[in-house]
């Protein structure tokens, strides 16, 4: 399948987890890929090479820090330099911090809002003029079940993700008469490093084995009892890039094993 041949995509936070899963599925459909995120330079080089060889697409990397608007703008310019355009933007980079409101460190609040919310605004602002010129674009924001419902001790994350859902709707309205769509995907639990840290914390807190902590985490929120996978989320992103999704605009699509049906 090469439904995205000739298109180019930036996926923020794609050196790991969900972003990498989405990058793989877009590459598998023929899209040129600009990776972003932190990590060991040699490992990122290997990843670039592996994706380029596996999917026979151009793969580039940009190290922009999503807390820095100037670096985000530079990343978009770099992608335009490499590929001539940015057709697909996946705002995925994100971090978590778990603490009660009273004990939440200010610096962590600012970092979560900057990376999980403001970066999506800055990147969207940078790609929209080119998408308008070509009258085609896909902006996919990776929100969360926490963009729709809350959990205790995640004030910054829940606020940021609800903000992403709101931003998604505004961008969808501002582009409604164009070939550009903007939508959010709202995953439930996905077993990535971001969630593994929370599983480890439960295991320590409750003095239980890691496997029991994993079941406890899923059991509390996710009726399916199974993790969502990065591959599944990548397939959903590919669908949102397809012509079938031309009139899907401003939605916040749960992919959450039933979490938000409760
Ligand atoms: P992850 O920790 O595996 O990956 C996060 C990625 O973001 C990494 O590539 C990391 O290098 C990058 N990143 C972090 N800070 C950055 C910064 N300042 N600048 C640039 N890149 C940065 O996490 P994940 O679970 O794959 O999460 C990806 C997205 O999915 C996040 O927005 C997260 O909130 C969301 N999400 C995750 C889950 C889950 O269960 N894992 C559920 C719902 C939503």
Short description:
This protein is of the alpha/beta class.
Report on the structure:
- This protein is an alpha/beta fold and 262 residues long.
- Helices cover 49% and strands 13% of the residues.
- The protein has two domains: 8-189 and 229-261, Rossmann fold (3-Layer(aba) Sandwich), CATH 3.40.50.720; 191-227, no CATH class.
- The protein has helices at 17-28, 41-55, 69-83, 106-134, 155-174, 193-206, 210-221, 230-241; strands at 8-11, 32-36, 59-62, 88-91, 137-142, 180-187, 252-255.
- Helix 1 links the parallel strand 1 (8-11) and strand 2.
- The longest helix is centred in the middle third of the chain and has 29 residues, at 106-134.
- The N and C termini lie far apart (36 Å).
- It binds nicotinamide-adenine-dinucleotide.
- Residues 13-19, 36-39, 65-67, 92-95, 115-116, 142, 144, 187, 189-190, 192-195 line the site of nicotinamide-adenine-dinucleotide.
- The site of nicotinamide-adenine-dinucleotide has 29 residues, from helix 1, helix 4 and helix 6.
List the SSEs and their pairings.
Blueprint lengths: L7 E4 L5 H12 L3 E5 L4 H15 L3 E4 L6 H15 L4 E4 L14 H29 L2 E6 L12 H20 L5 E8 L5 H14 L3 H12 L8 H12 L10 E4 L7
Parallel strand pairs: 1-2, 1-4, 2-3, 4-5, 5-6, 6-7
Helix pairs in contact: 1-8, 3-4, 4-5, 6-7
Bound molecules: nicotinamide-adenine-dinucleotide (NAD).
Q: What fraction strand?
A: 5-15%
Any idea what the CATH architecture of the largest domain is?
3-Layer(aba) Sandwich
- Structural class call reads alpha/beta
- Unreliable stretches (pLDDT < 50, length at least 5) are none
How many angstroms does the end-to-end distance come to? 36 Å
Largest sheet: 7 strands, parallel
Question: With helices defined by DSSP (H or I, 4 residues minimum), what is the helix count?
Answer: 8
What would CATH call the homologous superfamily of the largest domain? NAD(P)-binding Rossmann-like Domain
Total domain units: 2
CATH class of the largest domain: Alpha Beta
- Record the strand order, biggest sheet: 3-2-1-4-5-6-7
The portion of residues assigned to helices is 40-55%
The CATH topology of the largest domain, please? Answer: Rossmann fold
C-alpha geometry: globular
Order of helices and strands: EHEHEHEHEHEHHHE
Mean pLDDT: 97
Radius of gyration, taken over Cα atoms and rounded to an integer in Å: 18 Å
Bound molecules: nicotinamide-adenine-dinucleotide
Strand element count? 7
